[in-house]
Write a structure and sequence with these properties.
The protein is of the alpha/beta class. The protein has one domain: Alpha-Beta Barrel (TIM Barrel), CATH 3.20.20.70. Helix content is 47%, strand content 16%. The chain has an 8-stranded parallel β-barrel with strand order 1-2-3-4-5-6-7-8, surrounded by 6 helices. The longest helix is centred in the middle third of the chain and has 17 residues. 45% of the residues are buried.
Length: 227
């Protein structure tokens, strides 16, 4: 499959979510995201305002997480997080679905929780990626979540936080692409560490991937393209 550097770079959400990252490391990560011209830099919420400042001159979106990492926050708290993120300059928000409620199959709660964050974010001009945490779920849960995310107006469905016992798998990504309408994009997270892995998920319709090894992947992309 043919591709350009920009095709690949704009698939990457550069992840800066490790709890041990210092302010200096977060700032360096944001600058790296700009230098490689990726899609977004996804930072811990407290750092989002600074992230937006660092990214302002380029074409990389400031991003953060909502209800991270377990999704168990009250819906009102998730909405408040989303509204604060928008005020801080965030444009892409990755929210965690309430995992326990998904496993309880309390679908009305799950739908209302997602819709509330989507509406708050869209009102501020941002987009929402809903994290499933697939390693805890059965296929029936993943399928129903895809349906609910479409109903609630989510922009992306996403496999994982990257901080649970498992990450993105090809089977899950194929399932999520198959059960989501075309306008809902799919994001892989957890385990996409090489350019070949990124190309493999791209081939099955994945639009974005979280990554910490951004520099290595995109350096390899440039090498292969001879640029």
């Amino acid at each position: 499959m043919e591709y350009t550097y920009t095709d690949i770079a704009k698939m990457i959400d550069h992840s800066l979510l490790s709890p041990s990252l210092t302010d200096e490391e977060m700032e360096s990560g944001c600058r790296l995201a700009v230098s490689y011209d990726v899609a977004s830099a996804c930072v811990k919420p407290y750092f989002l305002k600074r992230c937006a400042e660092l990214l302002a001159a380029g074409n990389v979106q400031p991003s953060t997480v909502i209800g991270f990492p377990h999704g168990g926050h009250l819906t009102s708290i998730k909405v408040a997080e989303a509204q604060q993120a928008i005020r801080d300059g965030g444009t892409e928000l990755d929210m965690v679905a309430n995992i326990g409620k998904v496993l309880s199959e309390d679908w009305a709660f799950v739908r209302d929780d997602i819709r509330a964050v989507v509406e708050a974010t869209h009102a501020g001009g941002g987009i929402v990626k809903v994290i499933f945490e697939n390693c805890y779920l059965q296929d029936r849960h993943k399928i129903r979540l895809c349906e609910i995310c479409a109903e609630a107006g989510a922009d992306f469905v996403k496999t994982s936080t990257g901080y649970a016992s498992g990450g993105a798998t090809l089977d899950d990504l194929k399932l999520m692409r198959r059960h989501s309408p075309p306008h809902v994009r799919v994001k892989a997270a957890g385990g996409i560490r090489t350019l070949d892995a990124l190309l493999e998920v791209r081939a099955i319709g994945v639009a974005r991937s979280g990554a910490t090894r951004t520099a290595e992947m995109l350096d390899e992309c440039r090498r292969r393209l001879g640029i």
